[in-house]
Design goal:
Length: 228
Amino acid sequence: MGKISQGILGGFSGKVGTVIGSSWKSIQYMRAIATSVKDAQTEKQLLQRSKFQTSINFLKTATSFVRIGYRNYAYRQSEFNAAMSHMLRFAVTSDGEQGTIDFGKTLLSQGSLTTATDAAVQTEAGKATFTWTDNSDTGNATATDKVMVLAYNKDKQETVYDTAAATRADGTAELVLPASWADDALAIYLAFYSEDGKRVSNSQCLKNDAASTQPGDDGDDDSELPLG
């Protein structure tokens, strides 16, 4: 039975007939109870589920990173869901069985802060070394902007990252890579956010090795989109 907590014109929680009332982030909403579906395995559904599963398996390895990277897009949705939405629209394809990520089109951070100039990365001796030209006087860039760096292992489907690796003025940063990652295929990203945390840049993919594996089904039940 549903309960009305704010009077007859307020929101409600619980089930009333075929409608369920609830709230999220102080937003009241209602949804209809889903009707049964005879055939839930149409080609379109399979394609979408494959894309969904592949995206979520990738993003959940970098949740804290995307919480910063999509903080300006978390209006009536979580940062994770905002990143997920961008991936599904622009960076993931599917053949119905396996989703494929275009890591070059994937944005782990999105915003209007000026990106890096002449950014590059070199991987050797268990670390990734990032370099860029200090462009603090370009656009809205400042010397104190924080640097975020991330490396994703396509073979092991694991991620390491640092959300405060350096400042824009430093022109360089390092990220320690696990010893077991030697010779594995990597996707590596760089992004900035302002010292006050109000502005974020688009991430830049600086390394995108070819790999035979993709973030596929890991056996977890991820049928519900996380609000992380």
